[in-house]
Specification:
The protein is α+β, with helices and mostly antiparallel strands and 203 residues long. The chain has five helices and nine strands.
């Protein structure tokens, strides 16, 4: 049985340096996605979204392993973050808008997603399941770095990325992107591993 680990195959995207910011080219990839609003630390909507995304991702993995004799590691949770008024983004997390998402291998198709969603609806009560969409996402050129520490202390590192982009005569485009490589339920805040990524456009 063939088995792949996309984090290893896409090492430049999912295992960046924590010492220096790098510019990467992010190709078009397929994701399960859910949109929502509010503070992720207190929002039931966000927790429900994460639960539904992982339930669907793992059920897809097991179905494909059984039907196609192909296995793969489920990818980490990712998030796009923004606000209608970005000047207030750091002030009030209740104003945040987000897209929670998990990347899927090419073997996952629209038909497979629809089939597994129908199966999960019969077995589990996942309130956010009906909100999931499956689509491609092309981020393009971006600056990123590995960050270690609490989510609440990311600010200076995010600013460092923005300064880096400005120094390279680039402009910020798209949405702030985070990739969560640690489980906050099992890891101390100071050891959390998060990839911080900002799409950019160069002159």
């Amino acid at each position: 049985m063939k088995k792949i680990d996309l984090k290893k195959e896409l090492k430049d995207l999912y295992s960046p340096s924590s010492k220096e910011i790098a510019i990467v080219e992010v190709p078009k990839m397929n994701f399960l996605m859910i949109d929502g609003t509010g503070d992720p630390n207190t929002s039931h909507e966000y927790q429900n979204a994460v639960e539904a995304l992982f339930s669907l991702s793992y059920t897809l993995k097991f179905m494909i392993k059984k039907t196609e004799d192909f296995d793969y590691a489920v990818m980490p949770l990712e998030g796009l973050w923004w606000a209608d008024d970005m000047s207030k983004f750091a002030e009030d997390k209740n104003l945040w808008k987000w897209t929670a998402m998990i990347m899927q291998p090419k073997q996952v198709t629209d038909e497979a997603v629809d089939k597994v969603i129908d199966e999960l609806k019969k077995k589990k009560k996942l309130v956010a399941l009906s909100k999931i969409r499956f689509e491609s996402f092309h981020e393009g050129t971006a600056a990123q770095i590995m960050y270690f520490g609490p989510y609440s202390d990311e600010g200076p590192t995010i600013q460092k990325i923005h300064d880096f982009i400005n120094q390279h005569k680039g402009t910020l485009v798209g949405k702030h992107h985070e990739i969560y490589l640690s489980d906050p339920r099992r890891v101390a805040p100071e050891t959390l591993k998060t990839i911080l990524r900002q799409p950019m456009k160069t002159v």
